[in-house]
Write a structure and sequence with these properties.
about 30% helix, about 425 residues, single chain, six-stranded mixed sheet, alpha+beta
């Protein structure tokens, strides 16, 4: 065993002639500086403004991506420096810098300057990897999207050596292949959505944001409306019952009571509105999760509740029975409709979020508000969670007021522009 350890120690000593003093990752500010050095170089190539020392003007690039920082690649570069290599293992997808007695400060941008200088000194050299331009071509490799770098300070004999390695994804420097596509029009090959052209830099930039929301297709709009208008019709006709669960929960000693909602003199039949649905979707796109006191996930309050009498469903952990849109609609409808009702028939404006009964009543009142004529809904279908948001219009609920004009005859206050449908008890817009 001692012999094996001795031989291993001798092998390591023979393999590594340099001693690592320190090594590490670049700070956030240094990462930004390294990216700026890369992208400034790539931008000049893309725009056709880069020239060699001999005055040779480089061709424009049509597919040059803007680089972003890659932390995984930085970790790979960090690991590659652990033994203080004095020569690089490869130039494919990797750049290597070695400086004698170079300060740690700014070593990343010094490395970038050394690499770009290859093009400056030797010209395009066919735009392919050569002995003299092998690191400039990797910096200019158009299809590389990201870069990550690390540094090491090593003692190699009498010399203090600063090493920098950068790794690129996807890797470049494929033998015989040009670093970038050339053409008269900068950005011509940039994907319009995945990496649209940034005209100021000539680079293929960040992808356009993909909305996190989705709009309901026509069949599900109809399904939603059938639910809303069916309940609104029962309410208008005085046929809607309410199980007073809130009393039961509050006291735990009273049985549920069944109460009939009073008939309505003027409750409109809801129509789907694409503009309201889009507005709801845009709100959903900016929504974030946060835990509510009951342990569920609800929409962040920044969404806003009453721009158009908006209503927000909880973000509900996905169950196996909620795989389709209609299953999600049913689950959302249950949380909205539930068993809350008309103890006072007065709108609270969700003034007391700790009073769950008032909050759920207000959500229900908004959907059943007699003055509401239009509705539009959108949904988020995230991993593990989903949510639905609906807007109704017009806004007509005021704090403390009834949310529809109760009384008979049914439909008696419907205007001429929305005559009564006696079968449903709803005012139907012409």
């Amino acid at each position: 065993m001692l012999t094996v350890l001795f031989l291993f120690a001798c092998f390591v000593k023979a393999y590594s002639t340099a001693t690592r003093i320190e090594w590490g990752h670049f700070t956030s500010a240094e990462q930004t500086a390294i990216l700026q050095a890369h992208n400034a170089f790539r931008s000049k190539l893309a725009l056709g403004t880069y020239k060699s020392a001999a005055g040779v003007k480089f061709a424009k690039a049509t597919n040059m991506y803007q680089l972003k920082w890659d932390f995984n690649a930085a970790d790979e570069a960090f690991d590659a420096l652990v033994l203080c290599p004095m020569t690089p293992t490869t130039y494919k997808g990797q750049n290597f810098y070695k400086g004698i007695n170079v300060s740690r400060t700014g070593c990343g941008t010094k490395a970038c300057a050394a690499w770009t200088n290859e093009f400056h000194a030797f010209g395009p050299s066919g735009y392919v990897m050569t002995v003299n331009t092998k690191q400039a071509t990797q910096m200019a490799w158009a299809k590389s999207h990201s870069v990550g770098c690390a540094w090491a300070n090593c003692q190699n004999g009498a010399d203090t050596v600063m090493l920098v390695i950068c790794r690129y994804t996807p890797e470049g420097n494929t033998a015989g292949v040009k670093a970038y596509a050339q053409g008269a029009k900068t950005c011509a090959m940039c994907p319009p959505v995945a990496a649209p052209c940034v005209k100021a830099t000539g680079l293929c930039g960040e992808p356009l944001p993909v909305p996190d929301y989705k709009l309901f297709p026509a069949a599900d709009q109809t399904y939603f409306l059938s639910k809303f208008n069916s309940v609104r019709s029962q309410m208008a006709l005085g046929e809607l019952t309410w199980d007073n669960c809130s009393w039961h929960w509050a006291t735990n000693d009273k049985p549920n009571e069944t109460i009939y909602w009073p008939a309505s003199k003027a409750t409109y039949q809801l129509k789907w509105d694409a503009g309201l649905a889009l507005s709801a979707g845009k709100k959903l796109a900016s929504a974030k999760y946060f835990p509510d006191p009951t342990g569920n996930y609800a929409l962040n309050a920044s969404v806003g509740n009453f721009g158009y009498n908006t209503n927000v469903d909880e973000w509900i952990p996905r169950r196996d029975s909620e795989g389709t849109l209609q299953q999600m609609i049913n689950a959302a409808w249950f949380t909205w409709y539930g068993c809350f009702g008309v103890l006072k028939m007065a709108y609270h404006a969700m003034a007391d979020p700790k009073n769950g009964t008032q909050v759920y009543e207000d959500i229900l009142y908004t959907y059943l508000a007699g003055s509401a004529r239009k509705i539009g809904c959108a949904y988020r279908n995230d991993t593990g969670y989903w949510g639905i948001l609906c807007y109704t219009w017009p806004k007509g609920l005021t704090v403390g007021s009834a949310f529809y004009p109760a009384g008979t005859p049914v439909c008696s206050s419907c205007p001429s522009t929305a005559p009564c449908n006696k079968a449903t008890g709803l005012c139907v817009l012409k």
